[in-house]
Amino acid sequence: MTVHSRPQHIPQKHSSRSQFTKTYKPNKPLYTNLRYIPCSQINLHRSANPTAQFYYNIELNDDTPFINFVQEPYCHKGKPTYLPGNGKTFYYQSNNQTNPRATLTISNNIADQFFFQTQFSDLDTATCSIELPNAKLYISSIYMDITQPLPSKFINLAEHCLTHKYGLIIGTDTNSRHT
After folding, report:
1. pLDDT tens, 18-65?
2. Read out DSSP for the chain?
């Protein structure tokens, strides 16, 4: 599966006939219908207006599958607000209502194929995985604080993916300090 940062239509050829299809049929598995998933990454700086506008724009999306890697969304009592109805948002919830600084929003038409990975998630890291026909893929939204070393959950996830040869896609807002 190839992931592009901007939407492009790539017709998929059926193996049994030479016709091309342009429609996404959500009743079939993700990997048989898509050759890419549009992705975006944004840091909303804990601000209400940018968070509301960003998720409003997501609401205007048609039925195209998408994945959004969001850092520092606006939160109230430990929960992100203004979440879109056409996507499922994954994030780590703490017991003391501390705001998460990383979330993943995945469109409803593919979200049920992703599984939240609590062992690789915390307030600064939101990680999901999906089983593809020949591989397992992890996606992770990570907030990297400039005053802190690399997040331990990120290091554990990277080592896990390297050890087991799993795919890994990361959406993050980083600084040169983290290279």
Report:
1. 343 344 444 555 545 567 889 999 999 999 999 999 999 999 987 889
2. ----SS----PEEPSSSS-EE----TTS-HHHH-S---EEEEE-TT-HHHHHHHHHHHHT--S---EEEEES--EETTEE-S--TTEEEE----TT-PPPSEEEEEEHHHHTT-EE-GGG-BTTEEEEEEE-SS-EEEEEEEE--TTS-S-HHHHHHHHHHHHHT-EEEEEEE--GGG-
